[in-house]
Structure of Arsenate reductase ArsC:
Amino acid sequence: MTTPAERPSVLFVCVHNAGRSQMAAAFLTHLSGDRVQARSAGSAPADTVNPAVVEAMSEAGIDISAEIPKVLTTEAVQASDVVITMGCGDTCPVFPGKRYLDWELPDPAGQGVDAVRPIRDEIEKRIRGLLDEISPAGLV
């Protein structure tokens, strides 16, 4: 078992923190158990998580109905080992020594659940690949 200090920390960032970043953080938490700390935030957070995203994640067996979009803070970036942006452009702060990835994914804003499912599935695929890279050896 890893201690909190040994756990890699990943921050997912999108503009509204209502779709892509919420799905990514939920998948990482669901698939990694306590091996990786997942956070999500937005540069201009929405009031609520996209209902189609909540429905699509529920279909995958993950309940994010209680999640609330959070504002991106400098502290969240500094506390993370990996920062994955999802369409936040130049609004994400950059700090030396952090690993940054940019995942280009369609924005689920204003889309129905049928349009969200392929985005959800692509995020899950990328999270599984990320876990293979960052999860402590022997705990996968």
Notes: The radius of gyration is 14 Å. The helical segments are 20-32, 51-59, 74-78, 113-134. The chain has a mean pLDDT of 89.
